Amino acid sequence: MTHATADTGFRYEDLGRLMALMTGDEKHGPAATSTLDVLWVLYDRVLRVGLGSADEPGRDRFLLSKGHGPMAYYAVLAAKGFFPVDWLPGFGTFDSPLGHHPDRVLVPGVEIASGSLGHGLPLAVGSALGLRAQGLDEPAVWVLIGDAELDEGSNHEAIAYAGSAGLESLHTVVVDNDSATHGWRGGIASRFEAAGWSTATVDGRDHAALHAAFTAPHPGRPHAVVARVEKKF
């Protein structure tokens, strides 16, 4: 299966305008904008999934664990043709499918309902195990988490298990805006390395560096990319 996101004519430069269409309360703007470049590079150059393949067994899976800040996610999905751009101005309203947390039943392309910290990575581990059990070796599983989610113990159980199980199809992107309460000597990547993961730490606004980190080989091991962005204020 080849890269399958649609070319709708939208470019990275258009994402700010698309995000500006979403107004109202509880936008969690910094949580959303911190993920924008990671999401764009994944959907534009890496993920093998699109509206026409969103239900195919061989598709790549992308799980947004950081679901409390979905505006960038919605903007990228709209730019890639998963749903109409004219859905965006209704963000967060009573009758809109675009809630403050994404809903997999309502939004095309969304794999999980998310936003509760610490849930996405364990779900991604389960997804990778399920694909392995079905003999589906080609699909990749990607999950985007925030650095503050690493304050949750459920993520550390998932990190430990995935490393020992050699879940090569599993890829975790940690968007690091210095929100975490706790940390590790050597940085976030050291936590994954200690559990047997392949890792890379890059500038989360540098598209070339992100793409190189996302596509780096990691035979027999899960892969974690720490994307450093500006500090949250």
Main beta sheet: strand number and arrangement? 5 strands, parallel
> What is the H/E order?
HHHEHHEHEHEHE
Q: Write down the CATH class of one domain.
A: Alpha Beta
* CATH arch. level architecture of one domain: 3-Layer(aba) Sandwich
Q: Care to count the β-strands? A: 5
Structural class, from secondary structure content? alpha/beta
Any idea what the radius of gyration is? 16 Å
What percent of residues adopt helix (DSSP H or I)? 25-40%
Mean pLDDT: 92
Percent strand: 5-15%
Major β-sheet strand ordering: 1-2-3-5-4
CATH homologous superfamily title of one domain: Thiamin diphosphate (ThDP)-binding fold, Pyr/PP domains
What is the molecular shape?
Answer: globular
Low-confidence stretches: none
CATH fold name of one domain? Rossmann fold
Helical segment tally?
Answer: 8
**Terminal Cα span:** 41 Å
Q: Can you walk me through this structure?
A:
It contains eight helices and five strands. It is α/β, with parallel strands linked by helices and 233 residues long. It has a domain at 34-69 and 112-228: Rossmann fold (3-Layer(aba) Sandwich). It has a five-stranded parallel beta sheet with strand order 1-2-3-5-4, with helices on both faces. The longest helix is centred in the middle third of the chain and has 14 residues, at 120-133. The protein is globular. The mean pLDDT is 92.
